[in-house]
Amino acid sequence: MAIVVKRPKLKWWEHLYLPAIVGGMRVTLGHLIKTLSGKKKVTMQYPEEKWDENLPEHYRGAPALVTDEQDRERCVACQLCEFICPPRAITIKPEEIPSDDKWAKVEKRPKAFDIDMIRCIYCGLCEEVCPEQAIFLRKDYAITGTSREEMVHDKERLYEIGGKRVGLVNKWNGLK
Amino acid sequence: MNSLTDITPFLAADILHVSIAATVKIVAFVFMTILPMVALSVWAERRVSAAIQDRVGPNRVGPFGLLQPVADGIKFLLKEDFTPNHVRKGYYWLAPALTMVPALLTCAVLPFGSKLFGEKMVIADLNVGPLFVFAIASLTVYGIVLAGWSSNSKYPFLGGVRATSQMISYEICLGLSIIPVIMIYGELNLGSIVQYQAENGWAILPLWGEGLSVKGFLLWIPIIISFIIFTTSMFAETNRLPFDLPECETELVAGYHTEYSSMKFALFFLGEYAAMIIGSGLAVTLFLGGWSLPFGWLTPESAAADVPWWHGVIHILTFFAKVIGFILFFIVIRWTLPRFRYDQLMRLGWVFFFEIALINVILTAVILWIA
């Protein structure tokens, strides 16, 4: 059923438009003065002001690999992240840890670990699925490059972004 | 130039003097003031619009982004000047020039100052100032019509048609609205009109001189009506919001300049802003006392009297301050009012303004006759 909306009946001075113009200009000039006097917060001036200090705790930026207290790479190349990654951005080449290595009991480590940052959708599933707490989404958001090759983060770069992380559950330490 | 009785043959030195003075004034006023003002008003438009919408606006190029127009200009110059295959080439090329040139021509009669070093601060001291402005300014519509027609595509065509009817309709209101003012001044020379206002109170602020009388206050009513009609018609003539129907983005893509690119588009853009500045200049001259300061401060004794050079400089600055204020008013109005519907626009022009302006003329005549 159609709803009939009654047109408001305007007073004679409302028909003149002029009071409406004055009222409208009060609004626009109010905004103008507020913005010019700096009372109103406006857009962040990006390259000078960065997001870094203002990012929320749960922000999901670039994924990165971390090392533990003993500088051991936490990744054991189980490839779960590679399999769960929705856009298939992760490529892992596992390798066996030689028996004379200090961490031979861990058995496996990644030989190559590439994340294609053009493909990555920052969903955080890799972090969620990792049984070793080896991959984390950091707060880096300005991932740039001038070629496709540059946008692929290799193992070295991933550890550089991730750095060392302490206070995690340690499955493998010198004792165990 | 003074009168026909003065028929002493011009000496070569006089001709030289007149032509040099005219050239200097044209270069200083049109090329070194109006054109930079056009560029700066584009910057002001963007900054003020941004501030009204709680944004920052262009602030990267130069201090406060003041060099943004230069960057825009370079961009326009370096872009490919693309002429679509389906346009009528000759008219398509002619149209942008036809919008820009009349707008700049009209500043010839605007008195932008009293006197500086004994020279009248007006390029052509014509005795038919407002008539000249309307005659030339109405040529602008040809540029828009040609652009709309020669582009040979639907949106520019619709924009052109709208522009034609809108500009022709509002030209009538514009012309009629200043008749009361001219009746009161009894003068068509814009310089003398300003001198009169300097001595006897601005048209919309008659608070000193002869303006401060019963007659002055009675005449204030038709002048205010004139001012409102004039300003509104000026918005319609320059295709500014709330009357920007010839180029409304939401309906017509970009209206008559849809098919234009690079410098040709820039010419339309600049022509529009130049028209806005000249329109503001005319409104300031006719209603806001032109270059004169309020309450008769620093007013020259007569139009012919000499003024000290620093008075002349202050007068020029006053004129431009007023024009800039008027342009800011244009910009604020843009973000205050929504666009009119086409039938509302036509109704406002033909049913209300036309009649009110006519009645206003009669009202002024009656008041002048009684008082």
Describe the structure.
With 176 residues, chain A is α+β, with helices and mostly antiparallel strands. Chain A contains five helices and five strands. Chain A has helices at 12-15, 18-36, 80-84, 125-129, 155-162, and strands at 63-65, 90-96, 108-116, 135-137, 152-153. In chain A, the strands form two sheets. A three-stranded antiparallel beta sheet of chain A has the order 2-3-5. In chain B, a hairpin with a 2-residue loop joins strand 1 (115-116) and strand 2. With 371 residues, chain B is mostly helical. Chain B has helices at residues 12-52, 68-78, 89-105, 129-137, 140-150, 154-185, 190-200, 214-237, 249-252, 262-287, 309-334, 342-370, and strands at 115-116, 119-120. Chain B has a two-stranded antiparallel sheet with strand order 1-2. The longest helix of chain B is centred in the first third of the chain and has 41 residues, at 12-52. Chain B has one domain (83-370). Classes of the chains: A alpha+beta (176), B mainly alpha (371). The interface between A and B is medium-sized, with 16 and 14 residues.
Largest sheet of chain B: 2 strands, antiparallel
Secondary-structure element string of chain A: HHEHEEHEEH
Give the overall pLDDT of chain A as a whole number.
86
Helix content of chain B: 55-70%
Helix content of chain A: 10-25%
Unreliable segments of chain B (pLDDT under 50, ≥5 consecutive)? none
What is the C-alpha radius of gyration of chain A, as a whole number of Å? 28 Å
CA radius of gyration of chain B? 21 Å
Record field, number of beta strands of chain A: 5
Largest sheet data of chain A:
3 strands, antiparallel
